[in-house]
Recover the amino acids of this structure.
């Protein structure tokens, strides 16, 4: 009887152990949120040598004190936490722009509201005259980084005629493009984060097209080197998804069924046409905060990570905003609630709403 009882106990234990193990060939199921957020001039209160950051100093034009800086950090973390609450998980990967240096990102990821996310940072100091860079926050338990690269802007295009003379080109400085390659859910991914040249003065279309051309060329090299690689391009493009930089030079397609092997799916293009916006200027809504995905992610092999519709079961992108992220009254009513308004500190969040996509290998 004792031997039979022992045998039964061992049999049940073995069955429980075996039932807890994945079946042979059965892939783990993952869902990841991937997004971008322009943090609108996230500067610290110290001067960085060689950078024109003087307006963001305690004695500068913005009287940028530690109290204001801490409020800004708190607000940015609050938005990231709110997105986590909506999705039940933090972004696995979050690209950011308009950040002064690595220090401000360290302060951000250590804010008590989001410290439990355990974000790591990918960042390079870039050549921008104002000192703003792009960066990537990622959860290392979800995304294993294999390679980081800072890609400079140049004028070496065979197709674009630039509206700049040689002297202007020699002194022009803008943000580098960040590329981070690694494994997300065990699959090879590359993330590009960009903040393409400004529209100030009504210029720069040629520059933004060149920025997109640089991204596309490097992405194409990666797709040749790693045929199964999945690529997400994100950033403040200072262009809409229907502008030439995105449709021609990034090969962005509105409809997922039209995406060929050398194309990128542009989920925010249809959203722009439907009246959505991530920022407003002179009464008009735009979506400069764009994510695009390559063919391998748009039309993924069965059982692997793919982009999925997340808004009204038809839009593949999400522009995130809450009432407290929006100006409630006055001249800028109903647009993103920013940090400064007409030169005065108003304690808002950003003049851009964050955007994101979701990828999964679940059916």
């Amino acid at each position: 009887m004792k031997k039979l009882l022992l045998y039964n106990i061992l049999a049940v234990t073995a069955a429980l152990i075996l039932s807890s193990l994945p079946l042979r060939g059965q892939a783990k199921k993952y869902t990841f949120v991937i997004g971008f957020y322009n943090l609108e001039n996230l500067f610290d209160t110290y001067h960085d040598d060689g950078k024109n950051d003087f307006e963001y100093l305690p004695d500068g034009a913005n009287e940028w004190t530690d109290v204001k800086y801490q409020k800004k950090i708190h607000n940015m973390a609050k938005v990231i936490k709110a997105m986590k609450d909506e999705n039940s998980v933090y972004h696995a990967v979050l690209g950011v722009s308009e950040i002064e240096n690595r220090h401000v990102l360290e302060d951000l990821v250590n804010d008590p509201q989001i410290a439990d996310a355990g974000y790591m940072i990918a960042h390079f100091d870039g050549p921008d005259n104002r000192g703003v860079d792009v960066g990537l926050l990622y959860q290392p338990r979800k995304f294993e980084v294999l390679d980081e690269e800072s890609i400079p802007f140049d004028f070496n295009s065979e197709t674009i005629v630039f509206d700049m003379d040689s002297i202007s080109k020699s002194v022009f400085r803008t943000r580098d493009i960040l590329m981070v390659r690694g494994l997300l859910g065990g699959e090879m991914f590359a993330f590009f984060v960009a903040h393409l040249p400004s529209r100030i003065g009504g210029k720069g279309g040629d520059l933004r097209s060149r920025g997109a051309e640089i991204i596309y060329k490097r992405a194409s090299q990666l797709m040749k080197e790693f045929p199964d690689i999945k690529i997400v391009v994100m950033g403040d493009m200072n262009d809409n998804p229907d502008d030439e930089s995105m449709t021609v030079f990034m090969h962005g397609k509105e409809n997922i069924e039209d995406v060929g092997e050398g194309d990128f799916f542009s989920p925010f293009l249809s959203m722009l046409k439907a009246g959505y916006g991530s920022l407003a200027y002179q009464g008009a809504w735009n979506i400069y905060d764009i994510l695009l995905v390559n063919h391998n992610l748009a039309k993924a092999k069965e059982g692997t990570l793919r982009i999925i519709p997340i808004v009204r079961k038809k839009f593949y992108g999400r522009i995130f905003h809450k009432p407290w992220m929006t100006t409630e009254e006055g001249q800028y009513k109903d647009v993103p609630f920013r940090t400064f308004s007409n030169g005065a500190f108003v304690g808002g969040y950003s003049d851009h709403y964050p955007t994101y996509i979701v990828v999964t290998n679940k059916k």
Notes: The two ends are 48 Å apart (CA to CA). The longest helix spans residues 66-87.
